Amino acid sequence: xxxQVILYGAxxxxxxxxxxxxxxxxxxxxxxxxxxxxxxxxxxxxxxESDLSNYRCMPTKPMNELLDTVTxxxxxxxxxxxxxxxxxGVLYTHVQNGLLATKSLRLLGRVxxxxxxxxxxxxxxxxxxxxxxxxxxxxxxxVRVVYxxxxxxxxxxxxxxxxxxxxxxxxxxxxxxxxxxxxxPKLVPDSVLLASSVINDSFFDQFVRKEIKELVSRKYIxxxxxxxxxxxxxxxLAKEIDSSILTHNIGVILLPIGYASGHDDVLFLEKxxxxxxxxxxxxxxxxxxxxxxxxxxxxxxxxxSLHGVITAMSFLxxxxxxxxxxxxxxxxxxxxxxAPFNAPIEISSMCSSLDIFKGEDISKLKNSVDNAKNIIxxxxxxxxxxx
Length: 387
Hints:
Elements: E1 3-8, H1 16-32, E2 40-46, E3 61-62, H2 63-66, E4 74-81, H3 88-92, H4 99-111, H5 113-124, E5 143-150, H6 159-164, E6 167-170, H7 173-179, E7 186-187, H8 195-198, H9 201-207, H10 210-215, E8 220-223, H11 234-248, E9 251-254, H12 265-275, E10 281-282, H13 288-296, E11 300-303, H14 306-314, E12 319-321, H15 327-336, H16 350-353, H17 359-384
Parallel strand pairs: 1-2, 1-4, 2-3, 4-5, 5-6, 6-7, 8-9, 8-11, 9-10, 11-12
Helix pairs in contact: 4-5, 11-12
C-alpha cells in the first residue's frame, strides 16, 4: 500500500497563491526527491470538494472525508498560507459567489464573530474550528503533521496542535516570533519562491495561450491591487499610471490575482482602467501559469498580493508593495528581500520608483533569492526525509 501524502490548504477557491503552493511543492519533490516517491500517493485536500482544473489547479477532496480513510502513517502537509490564525468564519467569507454575500458575512464577523462561526460550521463543514490546524486525534489512523512555510498567529486555544506537529516551518520573522515561544519552528521563506527553479519557458509554452505571450512582448509594468487592501482611490492609481507611461514610455498590464470572494481584484482594476487616459491592458480569467508568466516577464511588479510579490522575487523582477499595512507582505519583504524592494511605497511614488533601482540592486536580489532558495530546499529535504 502506498504512503499517502495529503497536501492540505485553502485550495477550494481560485486564488493564485493558495492554489499554486501545493502544485509547486509536488513538482519540486518529483524533480529533486524522486527517489522518495516510488511508493507515495499525493492527495490534494481542502475544507470542501472542488475542481478548478480549468485554471490548471488540482481537484480537492474534503478533509472531513479523509479522517477515517487515510492510511496509517500518512503525512498531512499544510502547504503554506496565512493559516495559523484563520478561523472557519474568516475562511467561509472567502468562498462566496457574490459580493453582497461576502460583505454581509464580513459585517457579521465584525458585529458578532461567534454567530459567523456558528453559521460557517453549519454551511462549510470544516473538520476543525481552525480548519488548517489539524488535530491528530481526529484521524482514525496514526498520521504525521507538517506545516510548510505557514504564516499567522494561532490563538491560545490552538497552540497545543502546533506543539504536536512533526515538523513546522514559518515564512517570516513575525510568525517565527509568534510560534517559537512554545514550538521549535524553522524560519523558511514561502516555498513559492522556488517557482523559477521548477518552471521554465518550455513549461510556460504548454500552458500559456499565444495571445497572452503576444501581449507581453513589449516592455511593461504589472499592477495588481485588492480593493480591500488599498489606501488610495482608483483615480489616484490611474493618474500615476498615466504619469508612468508618459515619463518612461512603458506599457501597463493590470493583473487580477485574487479571484476568491473577499479579494475581488478585478472590481478595483476595472475602475482604474476606465479612468486611465492611455491605452492599457486588463487581463482577467487567466490560469495560474499565465498569471505567473505575466509577472515573470514584467519590468516591475506593483501590488498588494504576497504571492504576486514572491513570484516577482523568484524571477528577479523588481517588486513593490503598495500598502504598508499588509503585515504579512511587509514582514516577508523585510525578512527576505533587499533594498529598495524591501520597504513599501506610497502609490504617488510608483512612477519615480522605476528610476530608483539599478543593476547592482538586481544582483543583490539574486544573491538574496539564491540564499532563500537554499533554505527552502533544505527544509523540503527535511520533509522528504519523512517519506
